[in-house]
Design a protein that fits this description.
The protein has about 150 residues and is an alpha+beta fold. It folds into 2 domains: about 1-20 and about 90-145, no CATH class; about 35-85, no CATH class. The protein is about 40% helix and about 25% strand. The chain contains 3 helices and 5 strands, in the order E-E-H-H-E-E-H-E. A 5-stranded antiparallel sheet has the order 1-2-3-4-5, with helices on one face. The longest helix is centred in the N-terminal third of the chain and has 24 residues, at about 35-60.
């Protein structure tokens, strides 16, 4: 989790945080739902059987020669989906605070939203910090942040 303290253009203090969400705990729209754990287990099992079949076929028939590039394609295929899954996880972006620095009793504001991917999360945090320093509010027209 990354956290930055930002002083807005009007002198208010804000904390901007980004945190990766490893588990999906929010209900999304139907097109945002993933296949789930069972689908991943089935796909991994089928890929494992295919790899086992390729290796067993190469050892059982001595005249069959498996080229080296076949193993490269196999490794890329096996590593592609877990890498994509890890890079496209949802990130929770929050901007909390909005209190004046000398006022300890006043409640602040809280804004939050989700983005997909690490690079999008870093870019969104940079835009929120820039917006706080120039306009005094974390939101903008196309921002995923909503008041909490």
């Amino acid at each position: 989790m990354a956290q930055k303290m930002v002083t807005g253009v009007d002198g208010r203090l804000w904390y901007v945080t980004s945190k990766i969400m490893w588990s999906e705990r929010t209900e999304g729209f139907e097109h945002e739902k993933e296949g789930g754990r069972n689908a991943a287990i089935i796909i991994i099992s089928i890929m494992g059987l295919l790899v086992f079949g390729l290796i067993a076929w190469g050892f059982s028939v001595p005249s069959v020669e498996v080229p080296w590039w076949m193993f490269v394609i196999l490794a890329v295929g096996v590593l592609f989906f877990p890498t994509r899954w890890a890079l496209r996880r949802r990130w929770l972006i929050r901007a909390e605070g909005g209190r004046w620095s000398e006022d300890d009793d006043a409640g602040g504001e809280a804004w939050g939203g989700f983005v997909r991917g690490r690079t999008e999360a870093k870019a969104e945090v940079r835009q929120i910090v820039r917006s706080l320093q120039k306009r005094g509010t974390p939101a903008r027209a196309n921002s995923p942040l909503q008041p909490q």
